[in-house]
Request: fold
Amino acid sequence: MMIGTPSTPKVTPELQRKREAFYAELPEFNMRPLWAILKDAMTPEPTTQAVPYLWKWKDVRPRMYKAAELVSAEEAERRVLMLLNPGMEKPGATSTLFAGVQMILPHEIARTHHHTPNAIRFVIEGSRAYTTVNGERSLMEKGDFLTTPIWAWHDHGNDADVPMLWLDGLDMPFVQSVDAMFFEYYPELTQPLRREVDDSIRRYGSNLLPAFERPIGEGLYSPVLNYRWKDARASLEAAKGDQGSPYDGVIFEYTNPYTGGPSLPTMSSCLQLVRKGEHTKAHRHVSSAVYHVAEGRGYSIIRGERFDWEESDTFVVPAWSWHEHASAGDDAVLYSFNDRPILKPFGLEREQAHPKGRQE
Ligand code: 1HN
Reply:
């Protein structure tokens, strides 16, 4: 044997005793051998605590109405029931994404605050309740997709005569994991309106940008507050005859008009049409996603397990999980948000086609 390249010594009982004594004193110095945990940390593929899961609207809705009987929006700050991934210890739907359902009754106000997590809303039920974001108000309708960017002042209210319920999606677990949480109340219950209702749709929602101003927030997020269901649904319909994606069918991303990229810095939102009779191929990617059924019914196979869904159900596809979608009966429309924008800039996003096309 060459000098200077020591081989692994024979683990004699004496050496074993010495090792154990050495390991035993390390915790006192807040040290630990890497070689004891290297195999657990450096896995060949992502491992995640998050599991595939589906929340049925028929289970969620009555509990939201019950919550509304028991707790006011004022008392709750936000009347949200969290959709918790059963595999995770921390609250969240996936390791990076939070999902919840919020309800606001006629004449209620959810007071103004802001925080560093970005938020999305996807309207499930009701008509003409409002959200106000940085001085602009929008009246919401079923299927509308709304953005609440990082640090934007926001409050919600309902001057209509029916309750409104929507899906909340936040990058909160991610923001927590990088120790970047800030939260603050606005000094008053509601913020002043500084723009016309739906001003941003007229300014930025027609493939035109005001060329005389710098992008709001330096283009970090979309200036569009509300992406209307009727417009998004029409886009899907227009492309219905296209081949689409083998994994997602006819899928559109809600974009930031300044950049063509995702609507929020950390979350991409999409609307997709799974056409009548369509059954997509399976793939997996590092990004995780929360799906919400906007229209129709069908099923998704996630990590080999079948999840049957219908309108207003919500389900999760954790990181690196095989998944494929199929409609049942008529066309189905899925809304989803994912954490791809967090992964992509660092080269961490990967995608893989299932070798057999579909799972068994
Ligand atoms: C929040 O501020 C809202 O502003 C909704 O409507 C859901 C979930 C966790 C933490 C903050 C909102 C939230 C939230």
Summary: The longest helix spans residues 57-70.
